[in-house]
Write a structure and sequence with these properties.
Length: 185
């Protein structure tokens, strides 16, 4: 199939985006108890069900409860970094769209009458290695630039990545439209 590389690239992007949805705890609360660590017990050799009194030879006094009130009340937030995770997903989408643009452009150039319309990329599309190197370099530069901008101004970074993804989506869709038109001829 001619669209197999594009489908593979989109599958890789979908798998990578799933791993970005990891949650982190907002805080950690340690509770002091008089219990032994769980590793020192063998739970597989417990006796069968029976009255609790029969399990002990002599009555075991219950330990006095040792309650400690934490100094601060723990606050459980949904996630402190959900905005960053979504921004990272936006960056992964940008990388995936660049990969789709590379493969769809290479596919479109196989048909007579279809040429690269971007004057900056036109000299490089004749060589697959040069085109891949330029595409990789510009994608890496965009990715790193957006991360640096996000550290300074989150709103500007969101606007730029969203605009970039919208433009790349149009480019890939246009490439696919031109390929379908060339196949129909």
């Amino acid at each position: 199939m001619k669209s197999k590389p594009i489908l593979i690239a989109l599958a890789v992007v979908a798998i990578a985006a799933g791993s970005l949805a990891a949650f982190e705890p907002a805080s950690e609360v340690l509770v002091v108890t008089a219990l032994e660590p769980a590793a020192s017990h063998d739970f597989l050799s417990l006796p069968g069900a029976g009255p609790v009194e029969l399990l002990f030879e002599e009555p075991v006094p219950a330990p006095a409860p040792h309650l400690s009130i934490p100094r601060t009340i723990p606050v459980f937030k949904p996630t402190a970094r959900s905005g960053k995770a979504l921004f990272d997903a936006n960056l992964v989408l940008m990388v995936g769209l660049n990969i789709a643009d590379y493969f769809s452009t290479r596919e479109a150039l196989k048909y007579p009458g279809l040429t690269e319309t971007n004057p900056l990329m036109k000299p490089f599309v004749k060589s697959p290695a040069a085109f891949a190197a330029i595409k990789f370099g510009t994608t890496a530069l965009s990715y790193l630039s957006m991360r640096a901008i996000f550290k300074r101004n989150k709103t500007v970074a969101w606007i730029m990545t969203t605009a970039s993804n919208a433009l790349l989506s149009y480019v890939v869709a246009n490439n696919m439209r031109l390929i379908q038109g060339a196949r129909a001829r």
